[in-house]
Design brief:
heterodimer; A: 114 residues; mainly beta; six-stranded mixed sheet; five-stranded antiparallel sheet; 11 strands; 0% helix; 56% strand; B: 116 residues; seven-stranded mixed sheet; four-stranded antiparallel sheet; 47% strand
Amino acid sequence: KQEVTQIPAALSVPEGENLVLNCSFTDSAIYNLQWFRQDPGKGLTSLLLIQSSQREQTSGRLNASLDKSSGRSTLYIAASQPGDSATYLCAVRPDSGGYQKVTFGTGTKLQVIP
Amino acid sequence: EAGVVQSPRYKIIEKKQPVAFWCNPISGHNTLYWYRQNLGQGPELLIRYENEEAVDDSQLPKDRFSAERLKGVDSTLKIQPAELGDSAVYLCASSSWWAGDAYEQYFGPGTRLTVT
């Protein structure tokens, strides 16, 4: 059974700092990994999706990397802003030739202090 | 392009009452998911549809939960009767397989259910 862990559970940083969020998974047979952000009381917004054949994806100030062999993904946020404050979740889709139950981590709650 | 639409956004009911949630996925998305998210946790899959077929409902408490997606478009999730432990946010998501899309999931805003 795939287990997805995100550490730390919460993070507080001053505005302008670069930061890294971590996502670890136990089964390396994955199809893709997706990073989301969730604002309080809202649904999930997709940030980046990395295919198993890729090592990283970039969108604006966000960069996500994937190391399947070590079961890790990181989300790098450059020059953090107060608007980045949210909970960030990663989700792993297995490479199982058809059955595609996605497993989510419990998230990292980020607070960027002005 | 319209996103995933869910209604209602909030619902407060007494235990033992029924409740229903509605979801309209992104146009053209053949896969629809219902998730339940408890406070401080990641979403957990309740049921997944491929078109109108439920292909994964192993986590759906079938004694009180039911779902349908009759025409392969919008979907309804029902709880009857509701219990205190059902209080959570119910999220709907959709995805489609197109070249380069890779089953990327798009979520609706969710329905926050409070059972008193």
